[in-house]
Write the structure tokens for this entry.
Amino acid sequence: MADIRMKIMQVLGAKSSGGAELFYFRLVQALQEKADVLCVVREGSWVENRLKMLSIPYKSVPFGGFFDFKTEKLLSEYIEEFKPDVIQGWMNRACSKLPETSVPTVGRMGGFYDLKNYKRCDYLIGNTKELQHYFVENGFPEEKSFYIPNFAPVPDEKYKANRADVRLTYGIPEDAKVLFIAGRLHHVKGIDTVIKALRSLPEDVHLLVAGSGKLKNEYQELAKHEGVEKRLHLIGWVDNLTVVASAADIWLVPSRQETLGNVVLDAWAHKLPVVASRTQGPLSLIDEDITGKLFDIEDVDTMVRHIESLLNAPKQAETMVAKALETLNLNFSEEIVVEKYMDFYKKVTS
């Protein structure tokens, strides 16, 4: 007799795209093979559009502000209709709207958020061990606080065949050395520090940034001031990082604050050497000089030295990439992380 498939409701209230939204999408895609999943997302959101494109079952609700009484009512109706074995809410907006229910309810967090938004959660999952400790330190029961990391899928090696076309699309010389950043155009992401670093790097080094935000004009002005405007390429948010990453030689994570650093895992998955700031996420993942290079926050000089060392020593970069991929496959592969989620769901429903 075949096992009865578990029914899991995944609730996300975010409107825009970002690291958490991307991982939500990756996880629900992967869970499709293991369980019956119903996604409940915000109307008109980036995630809704992605789910629609791939014909993944979902419901959409307003996830409005204080006077939005419709969302909780609809969530109750969907719970009654779908009859999930477990409900997982993602971040503040979704978890604060979860209705009272007898179904085991999980809050999944990727940042140090106020736990008042998680009062209706029976369990909490953090994507770092530091978050798991944070739950307990702030009064959440230790036996109901869990750590499950994110994963990054490893693309087919053929993705690198897009390299020349992507460079041509964004006006990057074919023989240039390309630094790549995936992240919002926000002060905490430290993109300005890399623009300043370009001035100290050889003329053939370019910076490609995939991400949107309000600081685009400011960064373009900074690049002009530094005399590197022709070497800066701000291309906005892209849904498929893999295609764009094919143009890159080094993946940078220059953040001033980075709780997990999904992008470190993505760099490893794309077999690119990573140079990152000593923020919480990269520090918890990178074995210094083995699986990546680290520099102090805003330390442009050390960042430049690390970039130059990798560009000038391709064998060293290859060794680092191989070790990083080994670490990814041992701890952060899709198979391993999805299995951890399924084991967790079975545990809280047994």
User: Anything to note?
Assistant: The chain has two domains: 7-151+333-349, 157-331. The first strand starts at residue 7 and ends at 12. The mean pLDDT is 96.
